[in-house]
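Can you give me the bound-state structure? Components:
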Amino acid sequence: MKVDELLSDYFQSQMRHPWPPAPGAPAEPSAVISRRAAAGERGNRSRFTLAASIALLIGICWYFSNGFEPGERNSKPTPAAPGLLNEGSAKTPDEFKKTKKPEVAGPMLD
Amino acid sequence: MPHGAANSPGPHSGSARRAEFEALYEHHSREIWALAYARWMDPDLAMDVTQEAFLRLWKHWERAKAGAEPSEEIQNPRAWLLRVARNLAEDYAKSAFRRNGTQPPELLNGVRSSQPMPIEMLEREELFGQLRAILDELSPADRDVLTLRYALDYDANSIAETLGVAVAAVHMRLSRARQRVADRLTEHEKQRAK
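Here's the bound-state model for the whole set.
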């Protein structure tokens, strides 16, 4: 094989067939606009997700504070202390009234 | 044949700019590939360098159009591309160890397919392997001339214009490189015959 032919074959074999196209240039105006629109859609979606999360959080808090069943809330007052009776009064019982007070003798001077 | 330099800083409308970009790629991408290939003898790396050079041209035009920063006006895109490709190839030289480790690049580049090849293909690959080793021994300047001559079928005038050297120098380098290749191939054949 002649040197010229061999060199030609060799270099041709090293080149790509078909030759690759020009590298992509994505910064065309229409592409920019479509990218911005896509970015806007993504932004709306994340704002919606954030709003839904906050609403869910508020709902859960309200539910655990018994917000959905206000009629069943316990309306009886809690005793101030465990030792005290409800409907108690400050009157002196009769048994205590019958008890006579012992007379105190004076000093024996005789 | 190389096309003349497109003396334009880049058209202003998007479609016109893209059309000029495509035209530049069509006219000059192969010679940029050829010079990158002559430097490293790696077709894939040469293609990466070519694509990167064109991408940088496009970004340069975009920046110039947007006025984002004061940038050099490209009067001759072909010369600009050749310069960028040369710089990229030199950058690769500095990072070759990082990319290839201790493995010589030619060992990695030799692995192309796991499929068995017919005997003719094997013989051809062996011959091309010898030729590759011979070309590797040549100076980069001689490889530039050979690659433009045989990959792109450029004549001496076109090679001289592309490389910025005298036509006589091109003839001299071509003759010397061909003789060197022929001598070395003959040596290989004698060694195989023994």
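A couple of observations. Residues 29-64 of chain A form the longest helix (36 residues). Residues 27-34 of chain A have pLDDT under 50 and may be disordered.
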